[in-house]
Amino acid sequence: MIDIKVKTFTELTSRELYKVLQLRSEVFVVEQDCVYQDLDGKDQKALHVIGFKNDKVVAYTRLFKPGDYFENASIGRVVVRKMERQHAYGYAIMKASIIAIKKYYSTTKIKISAQVYLKRFYNNLEFFEVGESYLEDGIPHIAMVKT
Q1: Could you give the C-alpha distances from 96 to 19, 29, 101, in angstroms and in order?
Q2: Could you read off the pLDDT of 132-147 as tens digits, one per residue?
Q3: Could you give all domains of the chain from N- to C-terminal order, each with its CATH number?
Q4: Which of 26, 83, 98, 106 has the most CB atoms less than 10 A away?
Q5: Exposure class string for 108-129: b at 16+ Cβ within 10 A, else e
Q6: What's the rounded Cα separation, in Å, for the pair 70 and 110?
Q7: CA dihedral 64, 72, 114, 45 (to 10 degrees)
């Protein structure tokens, strides 16, 4: 079981921010062997959905209101610590993110840029492919929408 919190950038403590950035770097840069600019200047306008387990950040997403990133609301930087993936925390953090978008942005239409290998995971959350796959930071992605 994880404790999920939704925070604006200014509500994050420096310790929480450090743990979030550490997890994103651990998975997206080291595990996926992808050199890219994670600190992209978008965190300041995002809502941060953080899954804690025993004071450790084990799952995370960031949310954008319609027009900030895509025309629709969006969820990005979806990540679960490798050693915690067997607990279905990915579903927990995504469900919390979908609820937060409805609560804070008053919409249910969400667009994501998903890594292709996670298509079935997102299909299970009622996201469906739009268009063709494309490379983002050298990794195959596909646009997906939930209405």
Answers
A1: 19, 25, 9
A2: 999 998 899 999 999 9
A3: 3-106 (3.40.630.30)
A4: 98
A5: eebbbebbeebbeebeebebee
A6: 9
A7: -10
